[in-house]
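A.,

Following up on our hallway conversation. Structure tokens first:
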């Protein structure tokens, strides 16, 4: 039998770059809008939402990728947790899942069994039912799920709708791409890998349950496009300038924007509408501040961003960074401004995450309360910044 190389590099670092996807999606023919399609792909949201009755809608998503860890069972758990995360990011609950499997039929089938066992256990933990799936013979391993969830159409969360004055809550630490890159070349110690695996196998179900009890203006999960990439979508930003395209630049490095700022103050929070989740359908009304037409920006405080313990060392001393991290940097261009931000911190914010946490925009006056409730779950979450209408880009500062 051929030598098995299980982990060649995968997870969400294997995704196509955002530039490539933008170009492809922009060329798709226009579709007649179904009034019951509450969320489609026009705002790059986490999942599709389709209304089937006045009080019920279905949430649909799928996700699969190659392994980013050597253990097939853990890979199955991570892939399943990652695939179901989109349902929770939309405010729904997963109810059914289908396996998506690519596997070399010449390999030991016990490996495939362990992958699917890990996935099945996470589906059960989520409270959903595994109902079958589809498999093909392939040269490399890939695994994930197609997931269907349920949601109240009046309580849909989307990745747009943030308001000036909102605080930004991140429920998991960053750095899975960096740590797994180090792990792939056997440079990450067991403790570092265990720390990242523990985070990637933790379901976002628990943080989402807390968020469901509060008003949330926008929510997404942080995956392959990095914290900064997904935040730019949450703010309704469109790239203004760029160098070469992904296809032209490959994994090349760009320094990005590194200008200084005069420390413009932040606007106050908008008035609350009650302690309940924001009614969705934001994808139909466009991005940005739904209470006005002014563009939105954000301030991210690097000192507040949770991350894995050895990320700084892996970047500064060993230069373990990902190609997709550089594509994320190039794609965002001058939408991001760094003020006194170390290179490793920049890389952390551009790092593609696998099974990352939820990023939520919550009203300032309840943000500390929400953070306290999620911390009670033992999650290393943090309030990492604010939404503002005094900027039209993302400012990263100390």
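Then the amino acids I'd put at each of the 398 positions:
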């Amino acid at each position: 039998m051929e030598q098995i190389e299980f982990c060649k590099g995968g997870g969400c670092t294997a995704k196509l770059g955002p530039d490539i996807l933008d170009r492809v999606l922009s060329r798709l023919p226009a579709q007649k809008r179904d009034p019951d399609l509450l969320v489609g792909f026009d705002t790059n949201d986490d999942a599709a939402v389709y209304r089937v009755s006045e009080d019920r809608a279905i949430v649909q998503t799928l996700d699969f990728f190659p392994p980013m860890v050597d253990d097939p069972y853990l890979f199955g758990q991570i892939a399943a947790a990652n695939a179901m995360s989109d349902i929770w990011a939309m405010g729904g609950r997963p109810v059914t899942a289908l396996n998506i499997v690519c596997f070399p039929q010449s390999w030991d089938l016990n490996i495939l069994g362990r992958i699917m066992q890990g996935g099945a256990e996470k589906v059960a933990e989520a409270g959903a039912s595994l109902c079958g799936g589809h498999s093909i013979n392939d040269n490399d391993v890939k695994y994930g799920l197609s997931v269907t969830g349920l949601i109240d159409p009046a309580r849909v969360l989307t990745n747009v709708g943030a308001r000036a004055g909102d605080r930004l809550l991140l429920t998991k630490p960053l750095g899975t791409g960096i740590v797994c890159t180090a792990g792939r070349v056997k440079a990450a110690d067991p403790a570092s890998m265990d720390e990242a695996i523990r985070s990637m196998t933790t379901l976002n179900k628990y943080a989402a349950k807390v968020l469901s009890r509060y008003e949330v203006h926008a929510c997404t999960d942080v995956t392959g496009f990095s914290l900064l990439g997904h935040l730019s979508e949450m703010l309704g930003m469109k790239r203004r300038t760029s160098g070469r395209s992904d296809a032209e630049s490959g994994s090349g490095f760009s320094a990005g924007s590194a200008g200084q700022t005069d420390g413009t103050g932040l606007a106050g929070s908008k008035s609350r509408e009650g302690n309940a989740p924001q009614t969705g359908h934001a994808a139909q009304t466009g991005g940005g501040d739904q209470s006005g037409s002014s563009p939105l920006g954000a301030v991210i405080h690097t000192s507040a961003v949770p991350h894995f313990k050895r990320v700084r060392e892996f970047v500064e001393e060993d230069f373990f960074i990902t190609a997709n991290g550089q594509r994320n940097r190039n794609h965002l261009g001058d939408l991001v401004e760094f003020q006194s931000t170390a290179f490793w911190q920049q890389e952390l914010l551009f790092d593609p995450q696998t099974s990352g946490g939820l990023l939520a925009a919550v009203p300032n006056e309840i943000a500390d309360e929400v953070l306290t409730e999620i911390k009670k779950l033992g999650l290393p979450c943090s309030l990492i910044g604010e939404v503002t209408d005094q900027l039209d880009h993302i400012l990263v500062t100390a």
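The chain has 13 helices and 13 strands. Curious whether your intuition agrees with the design.

B.
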